[in-house]
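Notes continue from the previous slide.

Worked example: a multi-chain complex. Inputs as given:
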Amino acid sequence: MSAPLAATAEVAAVRELAAELAAITTRPWTLMEVCGGQTHAIVRWGLDQLLPPGLRLIHGPGCPVCVTPAATIDAARALARRPEVILCSYGDMLRVPGAAADGGPGDLLGVRAEGGDVRLLTSPLEALALARRHPDRQVVFLAVGFETTAPATALLVRQAMAAGAANLSLLAAHVRVPPAMAAILAAEGNQVQGFLAAGHVCAVMGTTELEDLADRQRVPVVVSGFEPLDLMRGLVACVRQLERGEARVANAYGRVVRQQGNPEARGLLESVFEPVDRPWRGFGVIPGGGLGLRAPFRHLEARARFPGLPGGPEEGADPGAEAGAEGVCISGRILQGRARPMDCPAFGTTCTPEHPLGAPMVSSEGACAAYHRYGRRG
Amino acid sequence: MAEPATPATPRIQLAHGGGGTLMQQLIDAELRRLYADPDQVLHDAARLSLPHGRLAFTTDSYVVQPLEFEGGDIGTLAVTGTANDLAMAGARPLVLSLGLILEEGLELALLRRIVASLGEASRRCGVTIVTGDTKVVERGKGDGAFLNTSGIGLLQVDEPIDPLAIAPGDQLLVSGDLGRHGVAILAARHGLDLQPPLATDCMPLWPAVEALLAAGVRLHCLRDLTRGGLASALQELAAPGGLELLVEEERIPVAEPVRRTCELLGFDPLHLANEGRFLAVVPEADRQRALEVLAPAGGAWIGQVAAAGHTAGRPRGRVLLRTPFGSERVLVPLSGELLPRIC
């Protein structure tokens, strides 16, 4: 997220909300901000230092790069090694280590250094342009992201179908946030009592799915933005519910989020994708935690075109491998909110943004990257 | 070379660096006008008659991409940057050398614009270019043009301006708002159409330093805020003496268009490069006088060095930033490259 210096009016408003929060908090509460962009803003502005004693924030798994399973990276690496393949994805994905003990740094850039054709995209539609420019090659797009980026991938799928592009496929790794929130609540020893939900996911999907979660799990969910003022508003709304014993969805990001979301983007997403069970790095398989291509588009899935890739359904899920893939790195526990970056012995020593051991240090939305960038060392 | 070449050829050729006729024509037509004493161009070394005193000597190479950006080009940077390095040592810039490494195929028109900028920047900085060298490398082995300048200046201070001269309780001031150069380069590189365009802050720093000295301000340390921006500069000053610097984020001047662009692109203005801004570290008693000199050009007080005793038992050699909300964080230099090659 961006980090402009705050305007004076905002400073006063944030301070007022901090005072309000102190006034309404009578007991210890533990809240989770779901999205990595929110984590960055909290650490960047030191908002956690403004909270009353006993009000604790746990950083959520809201970083799509971080939760992409190591086996998916390994599948992408296997594809990128094939001479006919051009493997493309977003910048951060190229530096995330996989799990395969095949030597080298273990990321896609490592394959590129060996001669693989790995390219960086800033928009999914560039993949279609690549496929047109290279009719003799197979272009594979490693498609990651939450419900926020899935509509753009859906648009790529629709345009590829319309264009009859036979040399374009997707390694589909999109994930859905609400099932992961449910998985966090269901986990043994869970401490999370309320959520700040990711505002940009809700901008697309609306708040209906979250209403189910709040009802069934009896947990307050407050849709929050990413600026200091948005986050403080979200915290006040969440603590207010907890103090009153309420558990419902509230929207503290009304300037962006509507209850029905963005019907056009959501319709596009739902026309192309359907919920599927999917492993998350650090979590194991989350029921309904991913988006898979619907039947009419399934021939565009790279796993269908290139059988035998790592991490396929035929292998089954191996959550143990996910958690222990990075050796000393504890990113699995960090993603579940069970540990903080500085609890990791590698943090800031053998694991840095230049030489990341785990995805949360790679991604611009990762919790470890946030702590490192903003000087939280102890 | 097999190709016939004439001075009218619109692109640089390998033979322009070959030491023969073509090179002489390039020097005569394009470069000679830069030199204070054009006859010196023919000699192997410049003969200097410098004022009596202690000298400062520095060198810097310039590899910026793109070569031209809003408000300047690589020529502007090459003269101003080296002159500013001298100013940061407390020296009045006097003379420069100029090394040009040109890539085969560089448009002659672009070279002319760079040379014009070199001349203009020399006038603004009050320096003369007294010696130089030109080479041409094969197409693909350069990046249009690389420039190197070395400079000599006359020291105007008795006490060394040095990070080790910084004392507990010293005050921190910046000479103007931050990040304009970084944004100008970003805009040129990524084709951002900023309205109105935001020009580089590239400007000579010696006049401001001279004004501080004239006002009787004791300068413990100066640092230009180039690559890595204010965040790196503060860290570099804190480390050598194991000091703790306390900075008030609210006081750091950042222009509104820079703020907006940073928000759009996800950058922190404290990490952006500047080419016409510096940090001054002065004793507490001189803070007001320094501010009176710097404030009219947008300068501001931003914080201080922790007083002796304040840091007992705390980590040393760090920069502590107080956010506008009253929270604190340790300011660390940017990891990795935010913007490769911007100065």
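Summary box: The first strand of chain A starts at residue 29 and ends at 35. The CA atoms of residues 206 and 331 of chain A lie 30 Å apart.
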